[in-house]
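Tutorial handout. Part one gives the primary structure; part two gives the three-dimensional structure as tokens.
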Amino acid sequence: MSRIFDLIIRGGEVVNHAGRGLADVGITEGRIAEIGGLTGADAGEVFDATGLTILPGVIDTQVHFREPGLEWKEDLETGSRAAVLGGVVAVFEMPNTEPTTTDPDALADKLARARGRMHCDHAFYVGGTHENAKFLGELERLPGCCGIKVFMGASTGTLLVQDDEGVEQVLRHVNRRAAFHSEDEYRLAARRPLARTGDWTSHEEVRDAASALESTHRLVRIARKLGKRIHVLHVTTAEEMAFLSEHKDVASVEVTPQHLTLTAPEAYERLKGFAQMNPPIRGAAHQAGLWWGVQSGVADVLGSDHAPHTREEKARPYPASPSGMPGVQTLLPIMLTHVAEGRLTLERLVDLTSHGAQRLFGMARKGRLAVGYDADLTLVDLKARKTIRHQDMASRVGWTPFDGFEAKGWPMATIIRGRIVMRDGDVVAAGQGEPVRFSETLAQSL
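Part two.
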């Protein structure tokens, strides 16, 4: 009697814990049931993956989808559409919306907004503040929460926790890994007069490398004192990467495709406000330090830091222009290009885009292409050559800093829990995203 699956992915090259090799993937009830030669098996649906490479589903652990309150920039539907078109199966979304995500009602509101509208699976950070610090142990255990996010710099209002006492109070009350935007707000404030009107090259001077390094030194000292786990987002300096390599017991590290690809001052001269983000795009020496972190294993995950602003907002003369750029749709094509050009292996990319997220955040049944796990798969054509263009971006803002970039490798299908969501550049199963579950809070999510 032949085996019967709901879906078989046939004839592709699988990249997973076992290495790389041709194999079929059999999927039943949304989970991977078998990997290997399934020639004699039947299925309700068969996907011919001949010539394609099958990766564990890409997870983007830092996006800003702007809803509620800033929907003219992005919303949960458009942001998640960009995600699945880019091969991303799940996203962790940030709390700096209006209102901010700092209490149970705000988190529940985001989950309700996502239901039936988001195309990928999702979880939401709760923002840590001076005001809610003592409640964070409860907030981080709510269903749909991926953890606590703290802005030590580059934020306004209650989300800014710039002082050591405030950071310590946050970390005292959390038990899961907490994520930090690590820039020293005191140094940033002192250096703001260095901004030259209309000159985006001065952005890197205002937010200099010392602003990041000093903050990260402070953060690691507090985490070590309290024995807490921290996640340092969008690391941008060679010195930070070297420092964090000595503190891997408490600190994990995120890098972004933007910082690995764009360099100052060229990016600012060419793109002007479209190259502006926090922490800033830096020079080649810092970028080399980031690549050292990727190649040596210090970096744990890739996040896009997808943070869109409209063209009109970006056109304001510096420093009136806002920081942030879209990136969830281009994360994989940019990084596949780096693979094609020999800067990292495909296996290392898989570690950064799926295994790392599963390992750091304890995603339940996600982040691995293995039997028993959710059938989250990203199918790519490593031989495809395609130019990234503004007009192909699904983000509401309709632009990308990588317009004109010749990508070497392209996502051809996004499969989430056994459902084909994107195929050949079209979203074919809309609004089916579900909240991500986490091992540390399973009782709350069942």
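Part three, for discussion. The chain is about 30% helix and 25% strand. The longest strand covers residues 4-16.
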